[in-house]
Amino acid sequence: MLSEGKAVFEVGQAFYRPETRVARDLGVLAAAVYKGDRGSLRVLDAMSGCGVRALRYGLEADADWIWANDANVELQPVLEANLQGLIQSGRAKISHQEANKLLFDCYYREDFYDLVDVDGFGSPAPFLGSALWATKMGGLLYFTSTDGRTATGHLPDISLRVYAAYARCHPSAHEQALRLMIGNVQYHAATRGFGVEPIFSLFTRGTYRVMLRLLSSPCLTQKNYGFLGYCHACGEYKTVSWRSLGRVSCACQNSQKSPVLSGPIWLGKFHEPLFLEKMLSLAKQWGWFERAELLSVMQAEAFLPPYFYLLGEIGKRGKINVPPRNNLIKALVAQGYQATPTHLNPQAIKTNASLAACIELAQWLL
């Protein structure tokens, strides 16, 4: 038997990664905040595996009803064993259907959920649109991707097929992977006259997770859904609107290496600070201080540009030994810039300063 949070469970033949507990912790915190705000919480766990997420939503987020589904019928014994208490109390049921069939069936029966969790392996593309159909208006969607090579630009032709976007490789590609997911869901929502709002975006140990809120009106605009340009010559980033396509250049004016574009991707805010504040407060109340520290970092990076700078890149391009990250951040803030650590990489910073400005300040600090 294993334990995680308040859950005691067995894994059996199911796939389980203890290293990604942080994603489950944030999911539970978000669900608990939602329950506190709305007064009720119905959860659809479309790819339940051994049922640890469903169990934790019941025990820690106090979900009123949980539907734990996994297409693999061989997992029925372990799911029944782990969720036995919730099932006997009339708060949960299990099933073994293909996820998309389940999601559409919920729509046809008008059985909508406050939280739809789709935690699969590989690309989430087949479910990014269909999960919307089973979600209550104002409800939450929680997606997973483990297909990092596609979303980080190593397989751009495949990214075009699965995300309808062309992903290029660059130092900030882990953030790009999250924004590809958000952008794709935003597009699917817009086709139905809806929108989604990012609650938080998480990268941890090769896993990408985004929590979104379904809204009743479209949010997609030319400002928040466009392209990210990266210049391999000088290392600078820029956001590129649809109207600017065909007129993209870099200030370094390197004729051999014009900026490469990734997109379309989500360029808007990365997290919802007010919702994160409630999650942070609850994390402190529960004694989850490591999660509270993470949420504080996420709050700080919410409105910063859709990319980050690696310290190694600053050192390499400036031909210097990079000063400590916190010293560089303090120097940037003193110069009037916004700057913060990022949860995406411990050896990186997010800032609205240019890379050239970061290099200049780093040189001055030495």
CATH class of the largest domain: Alpha Beta
Overall spatial form: globular
| Strand order in the sheet with the most strands | 5-4-3-6-7-9-8
Overall pLDDT metric = 96
Give the N-to-C terminal Cα separation.
53 Å
Structural class: alpha/beta
- Tell me the total number of β-strands: 15
Query: Which second-level CATH architecture of the largest domain applies?
Result: 3-Layer(aba) Sandwich
Identify low-pLDDT runs. Answer: none
Gyration radius, in Å: 21 Å
Beta-strand level of the residues, as a percent range?
Answer: 15-25%
Percent helix among the residues?
Answer: 25-40%
Protein name: N2N2-dimethylguanosine tRNA methyltransferase
Pfam families: TRM
Organism: Gloeothece verrucosa (strain PCC 7822) (Cyanothece sp. (strain PCC 7822))
Keywords: Methyltransferase, RNA-binding, S-adenosyl-L-methionine, Transferase, tRNA processing, tRNA-binding
